[in-house]
Specification:
mainly alpha, 0% strand, 8 helices, 58% helix
């Protein structure tokens, strides 16, 4: 048998408190203060201005619709939009833009500069444009802005004003989607233009009329592999380079010695 449960329980003695409860407070050093970056904002505004100026001069030098079809124009328009937004984020101390977006803009404008200087400009390159009309005046200024100034400035912004380690290798394949679609656009555009028309193919290495479709597609494949290798190299360098940003945000709590 079990003992009956008493109706009234006696008062239990209070447990003595050995330590006073410590107030939990967040120290000021644990709060990350937003930091404005006026130098980065100013540089990116200048970079966006150079891209806009180059695109505007290019439109004034020829048919806007034809000019808009060029990879250099499209990549610089994207760069101008991205750098304008990045300048706003830096000026207002907001979070930077997604690295997938800024990395894509950087990669495409680097492709613009490298393809022009390694394959198109000069007399010793494989697909020299020296036989075509030599750009002069504002067209010449536009060529230098779009193919030299903005690519170099974009690389400097990445190296000197952007935190490292934000690019991801899985984005490299995603970035190849736009060049692939652009290749399809160039070939489809050529089919809508009568054979023999000047400027039917936007770039000589894609000229299937002069080299045949086999060589044109082979050139496109080699360029695509080179662009992917450049994207992978960009990601690797982003994780290997030092941090150029001087300030370091303080995070975490400072440990205090135990009390009592």
């Amino acid at each position: 048998m079990t003992a009956p449960i008493p109706r009234d329980l006696p008062d239990l003695p209070a447990i003595p408190r050995t330590h006073a409860l410590l107030l939990s407070s967040v120290p000021a050093s644990a709060v990350v203060t937003p930091v404005r970056r006026p130098l980065a904002a100013a540089f990116r505004l200048l970079l966006a201005g150079a891209a806009v100026a180059g695109v505007t001069l290019a439109f004034m030098s020829g048919s806007p619709l034809r000019m808009l079809s060029h990879f250099a124009i499209q990549s610089n328009i994207l760069l101008a939009l991205v750098t304008l937004l990045s300048a706003r984020q830096a000026w207002t101390a907001r979070r930077p833009l997604p690295a997938a977006l800024t990395g894509a803009a950087l990669l495409y404008v680097m492709i613009t500069g490298l393809v022009y200087h390694l394959l198109l400009a000069g007399s010793a390159v494989p697909f020299s444009l020296t036989g075509t009309a030599v750009p002069t005046g504002r067209h010449l200024v536009a060529v230098h802005l779009l193919h030299t100034v903005t690519p170099v400035a974009a690389v400097l912004d990445w190296l000197l004003l952007t935190a490292p380690g934000r690019l991801r290798l899985r984005r490299a394949a995603t970035w190849m989607l736009y060049p692939t679609l652009y290749l399809a656009f160039c070939l489809a555009r050529a089919q809508l233009i009568a054979p023999g028309t000047p400027g039917r193919y936007l770039y000589p290495f894609l000229d299937a009329e002069a080299h045949g479709y086999k060589h044109a597609l082979a050139n496109a494949l080699l360029l695509g592999l080179s662009f992917y290798a450049l994207a992978v190299l960009l990601v690797a360098l982003d994780h290997a380079r030092p941090n150029p940003i001087s300030h370091r945000a303080k995070t975490g709590f400072r440990l205090r010695p135990p009390v009592g």
